[in-house]
Amino acid sequence: MKIVFDTNIVLDVLLEREPFAPLAINLFNAVEQQVILGYLCATTITTIDYLLSKKLGEASAKLAINQLLDLFAIAEVNKVILKAASDSDFSDFEDAVLYHSGVRASVDGFVTRNSKDFKTASLPIYSPTELLNIIQQSHK
After folding, report:
1. Per-residue DSSP letter, 51
2. Is the CA virtual torsion 7, 46, 30, 97 positive or negative?
3. Exposure winner among 2, 57, 90, 132, fewest CB in 10 A?
4. In which element (H, E) is residue 73 found?
5. Helix (H, G, I), strand (E, B), or coil: what is residue 115?
6. Angle 20-22-25 from CA coordinates, rounded to 5°
7. What is the full per-residue pLDDT of the chain (140 aa) written as tens digits?
C-alpha cells in the first residue's frame, strides 16, 4: 500500500505534537517495517526544513530531513503537477500539489488530519486512526 503522508502528520512526529504524535509515530513505524510504502511530497520536505530550522535550528532540521529522505519515497513536483493543482477544485494550493504529486506517483491513498481539505479527491483520504486500523486489520 503506497500512502502519501501530509505535512501535518510528519510534523506531529518531528515536533512531538500531542495528542497526535503517538498515532503518527505508529504510522512511521509501519513505514519503517515496510508494512506500507510511505511517500512525501517534495514540497513537504522544503516546508519541514523551513519550520524545523526556525523552531529547532538548522542542524536539527538537516538531520530530520536526512532521516525522512532515508525512510520515505518522494513524490516529485514539476510543471505538470503544479498545473494540475492550479486547475483543480482544491481550495488550498499546497494540498492540491501534495495530492496531484501523489496521483502522479500512483499512490493508493493519503493520510492527513485535515481530510476536509481533500474533499474533491478521488483517491482515498485516511485519518491516522483509519489508516492504522486498516494496517492492523491487514496483518491479523
Report:
1. H
2. positive
3. 57
4. strand 73-75
5. helix
6. 105
7. 999 999 999 999 999 999 999 999 999 999 999 999 999 999 999 999 999 999 999 999 999 999 999 999 999 999 999 999 999 999 999 999 999 999 999 999 999 999 998 999 999 999 999 999 999 988 76
Residues paired with residue 37 on neighbouring β-strands, in sequence order: 2
For residue 6, give every residue at least 6 positions away whose Cβ sits within 8 Å of its Cβ, in sequence order, or none.
44, 95, 98, 110, 111, 112, 113, 114
DSSP label at residue 6: P
Nearest partner of 39 among 11, 14, 68, 78, judged by Cα:
68
Domains and CATH numbers, the chain: 2-138 (3.40.50.1010)
Number of CB atoms found within 10 A of residue 91's CB: 11
**3-class state of residue 2 by DSSP:** strand
- Name the pTM for this structure: 0.94
Reference 94, options 52, 42, 16, 17; nearest CA is 42
